[in-house]
Design goal:
Strand 7 (about 225), helix 10 and strand 8 (about 255) form a beta-alpha-beta unit. Strands 1, 2, 3, 4, 5 and 6 form a six-stranded parallel β-sheet that branches. The protein is globular and about 55 Å long. It has about 400 residues and is α/β, with parallel strands linked by helices. The longest helix is centred in the N-terminal third of the chain and has 26 residues, at about 1-25. It has two domains: about 30-265 and about 315-390, TIM Barrel (Alpha-Beta Barrel); about 270-310, no CATH class. The chain is built from 18 helices and nine strands. It has helices at about 1-25, 40-45, 60-65, 85-100, 115-120, 140-150, 170, 185-200, 210-220, 240-250, 260-265, 270-280, 280-285, 295-305, 305-310, 315-330, 355-365, 370-390, and strands at about 30-35, 70-75, 105-110, 125-130, 150-155, 200-205, 225, 255, 335.
């Protein structure tokens, strides 16, 4: 009995000993996440991230700290069908300002790389703003300037919807989308050039392939792909193909992996379709009262958590995407862009922002050096942002 107890204690000590280096590395590194949608959740659902929202959202102020997050770029988003998207953008920015003021001891909005270093030294969360969708500037360069002055430090040229000057990945890959052109128009190229002048990162998540290549040829600064994965591993329109990945590396930019199960695991959509079929009657009933399929699916996901858990891919598949991006683009060009609170499924174990240390541990187990892990966790994103500053 004593021998068994001693063996058990030795095993527990070994597990604790080997777990400590990854934890120490994680919390000793700058961890940056380039895409989180909690602001939209706040404005549409009325949640208050000053409080513990565990089980309701992926994020709240205190859980960012528990996960070791040092820099969070908060997404400002609205659907392409929204009237007055510029006003909606400012409403979400107002929300972030209010949250930061209420929690001034825990977080602060950064407007420069100097701000980032200062806020991190104070052990507070660095909050930054990324506008998701060029439609939110309403085809007006003065409104782009205004968004920059309010703190926007990247803008995706499109969301799923195309706009008059740039076409989206969804539309370019659709056989039914009626497009008057593909890629960037001359005005679209002016937008990219103005972003370069301002010091606003050009975000190429969501954009169509032609828009991607037009932007790469137009920009004079490193780009960011704030929340996308590798097409070869999971062939969906939102992921980057091999030549695009290599191009971001040559541009000295950064690709930040998205945590959405459907962008990581090519078999996820099939499993999800089977889930929907099992609950078709209930889903159809919900759709009689609401027109948005996402709402119906989100309701069902919350109602059947055990089934939903089984749909999720293993964490290892997310690390596979990181590996793939590193091989093609280089270790200096990969980061993290979770899309938390904008997705309804993430890999096993990644339940919310507190689980980031698991990624650090997994990277070390894959054989990444401490220096390489630090780059992926945040240093690559900081480099690209600094290179974009005016």
């Amino acid at each position: 009995m004593k021998k068994i107890t001693a063996t058990l204690l030795l095993s527990l000590f070994a597990l604790s000993f080997f777990a400590q280096p990854s934890k120490k590395l994680h919390f000793g590194s700058i961890v940056a996440d380039t895409h989180n949608d909690i602001l939209t959740n706040i404005c549409t659902e009325g949640n208050n991230i000053d409080y513990d929202l565990t089980g309701k959202t992926h994020s709240d102020v205190n859980r960012f700290k528990k996960g070791g997050v040092d820099l969070q770029i908060f997404s400002v988003w609205c659907d392409g069908k929204m009237q007055n998207p510029f006003s909606w953008a400012n409403r979400e920015i107002d929300s972030l300002y209010a949250i930061s003021l209420r929690n001034w001891q825990k977080m602060e909005i950064a407007f420069s790389s100097k701000d980032i270093r200062r806020i991190i030294r104070k052990r507070k969360l660095v909050a930054m703003i990324g506008v998701e969708g060029g439609h939110m500037m309403e085809n007006d360069l003065s409104k782009l300037d205004s968004l920059y002055k309010r703190g926007t430090r990247y803008m995706t040229l499109t969301w799923n919807n195309s706009n008059p000057w740039a076409t989206s990945a969804m539309d370019e890959s659709s056989a039914t989308a009626a497009l008057s052109h593909k890629g960037l128009t001359e005005f679209g190229k002016q937008v990219v050039k103005r972003m370069n002048e301002l010091g606003m990162m050009v975000d190429l998540s969501h954009v169509g392939e032609q828009t991607f290549w037009d932007a790469i040829q137009t920009t004079t600064k490193p780009v960011i792909v704030s929340h996308s994965c590798a097409y070869t591993l999971c062939p969906v329109y939102r992921n980057l193909k091999d030549e695009q990945i290599k191009a971001v590396g040559k541009n000295n930019g950064v690709i930040c992996v998205n945590f959405f199960s459907g962008f990581i695991d090519s078999n996820y959509s099939r499993r999800n379709e089977q889930f929907i079929k099992r609950h078709k009657t209930e889903r159809d009933s919900i759709l009689k009262t609401v027109s948005d399929p996402y709402f119906a699916d989100d309701y069902l996901f919350k109602k059947y958590p055990a089934e939903v858990q089984a749909l999720r891919p293993p964490l290892s598949m997310l690390i596979d995407h990181i590996d793939y991006l590193v091989r093609l683009a280089g270790i200096d060009h990969v980061g993290l862009g979770s899309d938390f609170d904008g997705i309804n499924s993430a890999p096993q174990q990644l339940d919310d922002v507190t689980n980031y240390p698991l990624i650090t541990d997994a990277l070390l187990k894959r054989g990444y050096s401490r220096k390489s892990v630090k780059k992926i966790l945040g240093e690559n994103v900081l480099r690209v942002y600094k290179a974009n500053e005016q």
